[in-house]
Amino acid sequence: MTGTDTGAGGAAARAQDVWKVYGSGEAEVIALRGVSAEFERARFTAIMGPSGSGKSTLMHCLAGLDSTTRGDVWIGDTKVTGLGDAGLTKLRRDKVGFIFQQFNLLPTLTAAENILLPLNIAGRKPDPTWYDTVIDTVGLRDRLDHRPAQLSGGQQQRVACARALVARPQVIFADEPTGNLDSRSGAEVLGFLRNSVREHHQTIVMVTHDPVAAAYADRVIFLADGQIVSELVEPTAETVLDTLKNLDVLTDVPGAV
Fold it and tell me: What's the sign of the alpha-carbon dihedral 249, 254, 256, 257?
C-alpha cells in the first residue's frame, strides 16, 4: 500500500480540507465543503446533522468507500487519497471495520461463521484470546451456532459488531447502527460500542441522527450544508438536541468549490 504521512500523528482517521462534489453545472451538488477533522484513537465520535448535511459522505470518504474531489484523508499513517483498487481493498480488509444499519449477515452462515468471515477471506486466523473477549463482550456465546434468522435484530447487530471488532481494525465506522432496532436493543448495541472503546481501546466513528445514540459518544461533530459547524465533548441527549435545533444559526456557507 502506498502513501504514508507521519503528520497523521495520534489520529486513527483524519480529513484535511475535504471537498466532495457530485455532478456538474446545474446538477452540481456540493456534499462536503472543506472539511478538516481528526478522530482520536480509542475515542467514540458521533457525526450528526440534518439529511443532506454530508455526514454519511464524510464517513464514506474517511473509510475509502468514496473518493474526495479535493483534499486528503488518512487512516492512521496511511494516506487513503489516491490509493488504487488493490490498496483500498487491503486498507478496508486490514485497518477498517464496518457496522451498517442493515446487518449484512449471510443467512446461510452461523453467527460464529459470520463473525470470522472477513478473517477467513483474508486468510488470517483470529487471535483466540481476543476472539473470546469479543464474544463475551457482545454476550453471544450461547448463540454462536445460530443462523441470522434464529436471532433477534439486536443479536444480529451484535454479531455484526463482533465481526467488525474481531480483526482489531484501527477504526470502526458505524452508519446508523441502531436505525433498525428497538430502543432496548439499540441501547444494548450502543453500550457494547462504548465499552469496546473504554475497555478495549477501539476507535469508533458513528453517523447517527439520534441524540440518545450520540450521547453514548465521547464527542459529537455537527455538520450542516457540508461543513463542520459545531462540536460537543461529553455530550448528553439534551445538549445534542439543543445543538441540532440551533444548526441553522451556526451555518455559514462559503462559495462553491
Answer: negative
Beta strand segments in the chain, E: 11-22, 29-40, 44-48, 70-75, 78-79, 96-100, 171-175, 204-207, 219-224, 227-233
Q: What is the pLDDT of residues 114-133, one digit of tens each?
A: 999 989 988 899 999 999 98
C-alpha 162/C-alpha 138 separation (Å) is: 7
Enumerate residues 6+ apart whose C-beta is below 8 A from 166: 115, 116, 118, 119, 126, 130, 131, 134
Distance in angstroms (rounded) separating the CA atoms of residues 168 and 162 = 10
Contacts of residue 1, defined as CB under 8 A and 6 or more positions apart, other chains included, come to 78, 83, 87, 90, 91
Among 213, 173, 171, residue whose Cα is nearest residue 191: 213
Question: Is residue 106 predicted with pLDDT exceeding 90?
Answer: yes
Bridge partners, 105 (sequence order): none
Distances from the Cα of 197 to the Cα of 13, 82, 192, 202, angstroms: 15, 30, 9, 4
Contact call for residues 177 and 193 (beta carbons, < 8 A): yes
The three state secondary structure string of 47-100 is: EECCCCCCHHHHHHHHCCCCCCCEEEEEECCEECCCCCHHHHHHHHHHCEEEEE
**Domains (ranges, CATH) in the chain?**
42-67+84-250 (3.40.50.300)
Terminal alpha carbon distance of the chain: 30
- What percent of the chain has pLDDT above 90? 73
Gap between the Cα atoms of 254 and 6, Å rounded: 31
